[in-house]
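Let us practice reading a record.
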Amino acid sequence: MSPKHLCWHYYTFFLLVIAPLPILFSCNKDPLIKPDSSISTNAVMANLATTSNVRTGSILREEWDGLTGNDVSDIPLQTTPTSSSQLTALEGPVNNGSNYGDRMRGYIYAPTTGNYTFWIAGDDAAELWLSLDDNPLNKIKIARTLSWTKVREWTKFASQKSAAIALKAGQKYYVEVLHKQGAGGDNVSVQWTLPGNMTETHIPGSMLSPYVAPATITGTILREEWDNITGNDVIDIPLHAAPTSTSQIKTLEGPINYKSNYGDRMRGYIYPPTSGNYTFYIAGDDAGQLLLSTDDNPANKKIIASTLSWTNFKEWTKLASQKSALIALQANHKYYIEVLHKQGGGGDNVSVQWTLPNNITETPIPGHRLSPFLPTLATSVYKPSKIINLTGAHDITISGESIIGGSVPAITLTNCYNIHITQNKLYNSTDVGIYLYQCKNITIDYNYFNNVSSGVYAEKTTSGGIVVNYNQFLNMAGPFPRGQFVQFNTVSGAGNSISNNKGENIFGQSYPEDAISLYQSSGTAASPIIINGNWIRGGGPSSSGGGIMLGDNGGSYLIASNNILVDPGQYGMAIVGGDHNSIINNTIYGKQQYFTNVGLYVNTINGYKITNSNVSNNKVNYYNSSNYNNNAWLSPNDVKPIGWDGNSWGAKIDASILPAVLMSYH
């Protein structure tokens, strides 16, 4: 195995002497919003909800009651609101009550192309955020009230007016209003001036549509395959056994003329874009069944359509049973869906389409309506196996293995490609769980790692396609320089991801370093390395280790978004070097421990200059070893990242942002 690298992080000098810098606002020099080239919208949107580009005439309003304080930072946005409703204009109620906070969010559509100016008014405090696309992660604060204003009092503060913002006709832009009310009268309103200097007070519902909750629609659905299975009926699929392979597919459609004697299952969740009656169709060869639940519980699934015999590819009308009855579904609700397909000999295919309430048919059902089912592994799934060490291997699946590593990695791949490692148990090794060296197109998902020095360590893999998603990690043993759930060391290229993993280090049973480390690793402008949706709990006592580190000894085009971290160690998240690296929409909490320091920081280390960084919309509540609320630190030698002043430092969050039990694999 080649040398293992991880730099020491020389930042402990500010442990007790540097307090978080105050957030400074300019009252009359709000910058013109420009597209942020550090964000790849296509990449990040895979983890965001998608809606059709249709104005619905309303926008979502969420309200949190019984809140003290007068600032928007007092709104507990990470918790479930007391109530929600739809508004027909970008304006809240007047004299609604006291001690509440509310958020209006959704999408706004420019009627003509040109420069727009926005204003906000509110009592007690209000902020207006806008994205230059439909991605909430790219939102930037464009206007705010410095104190209370009267209803539609637009000119009390210079900060209430945005700069001129160029928008395109018909395009969909994410918009968000935050409003906190203490006592006394209350109001919040938004107006805009259009390119022809016409002002609309307030912005009407005809220009709006409501927000769909994030982190549900992922753009894929789980496909499981069982090989070498005889028979032509779905009953012949051994669903009780571990599949031969699993994958994520981007539509509700299987491969065509793929092979013989196999069975497959596609399962996950479907999200109707509008409320109304839907009709489903299935086509397949040899046999197929389509099952749908009345909610997100698989136990409530029922067969709604089937093929009694084979059909041609997308032949929807051969058999009456292929078409479902009309099924009433609610917009943006989550419904469990499952497709069973059995192939014997000859050609093979399976596809599902649906007709929406507006009579538009989507063939097949696309990924932006879907998210995958996450299987819970049972011990009985695994079979004992010796360590695996492959060189030059390709086009294989490693699944269902229980491997004790001992003094070597449980799985080592060298110069390998097109390999899927899924649903394995890898444990008890003084080395790493999975080691990749000069590999490409390796997918590692749904595995369980326990008591290894690091979970996944990928080194010098420069051709892309390293995907580490949906795994679970318990107690990384280290010691330094190991101790990560996942570390990318000189990984580059397109299609790299570390997403939707769960990791926990129990103090006294582990000795972790950084939970996720990006060392001299780079994505591309079109395909950044995505570190999204990970749940991380536990760290320490390392004086240099923590949660998620970007740009260690350089690296570029790294996006860490929507991660939740609780007590991850000395620090929460950091950028320490590199170009176009982003920390967006994460939630970080840390209690006082003798090794804790700072929640989120940006500081060039070892001379790897930080450029074009974005640190925005994060919620941080972190206590250092002296029990000081040390939420953030920006080195005076570094340029302020985009969005820095829009983060919630000292957010009202605690350890409950993660559930009590993380691990479902064992």
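A brief commentary: The longest strand covers residues 100-109.
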